[in-house]
Amino acid sequence: MGPVFVSGGRGSGGDGFTLVEVVVALSILSLVMLATITGLRTLANTQLSLERMTDRVDGMRAVSGFLRDTLESAAVGGGGGLSLGGGSRGSAYFEMAPDGLAWKSTILIGEYFGGSYLLRVAREDDLLVLRWQEGDASGQPGDWSEAQARTLVEGLQDFEVSWREDSQGDWRQQWQKGDKVGWVRLQVKAADRYWPELIMQVPQ
Fold first, then answer.
1. For the chain, which residues make up each domain, given as ranges?
2. Cα-based angle 159, 176, 134 (whole degrees, multiple of 5)
3. Average of pLDDT values for 29-56?
4. Bridge partners of 1?
5. Nearest CA to 118 among 98, 97, 99, 95?
6. 176-197, pLDDT tens digit by residue?
7. Angle, CA of 21, 27 and 31, to the nearest 5°
8. Given this model, what pLDDT does residue 123 score?
């Protein structure tokens, strides 16, 4: 019987790859890597967007909760103002403007300090700012620009304050001392989005 020859694969070159096969393989690998990187980048952007949205929602809840709590701790005094029952400065204090609201309430400053203060939440340029002070001997505020302050909202685009006497009345922005305020509505716009309307009942 004569000799038997077994082919070694790809002609005389053995098991190597041709240049065309290498180029095709590299092209496929590049596409896979590009798709993976794009997917990871999209995932990272989505995560960042979710974190920003979560931070914005948390900020909205914190501001809304603070305003609700401080208004609920106030009581309507004589003459249509607001005053804190039992406070050392008993005179009523309440002021309202289309872009600001001021009243007397109790706040906690830090972990151990707090008390009865005159508060004002108002628009200052593109910021929504909380300011507080003790007031003078008659319970009226001094210069608000010199009062202690904390920024509640940055990048503020719109802030409106309106009020009505009862739950069925029309919302109004013009307020005069002596007007009986039963409900207050705050409208905030920041980051090109309006917050849900914050409607608070002023305790009687």
1. 55-201
2. 75
3. 78
4. none
5. 95
6. 888 888 899 999 998 888 988 8
7. 145
8. 94
Tokens at residue 170, please? 């029309």
Tell me whether residue 157 is exposed, middle or buried, using C-beta atoms within 10 angstroms of its C-beta: 0 to 12, 13 to 18, 19 or more. middle
Residues 6+ apart with CB under 8 A from 164: 170, 171, 172, 181, 182, 183, 185
- The per-residue pLDDT for range 60-108, each reduced to its tens digit, is 788 888 888 877 766 444 434 433 333 444 566 888 888 899 988 877 6
Q: Can you tell me the distance from the alpha carbon of 69 to that of 72, in angstroms, rounded to the nearest whole number?
A: 5
Q: CB–CB of 157/192 below 8 Å?
A: yes
At residue 148's C-alpha, the angle toward residues 181 and 200, to 5°, is 25
- The Cα 82–Cα 71 span in angstroms is 9
CA distance 88 to 198: 30
Whole-structure pTM value = 0.66
DSSP annotation of 143: -
The pair of structure tokens assigned to 115 is 């008390």
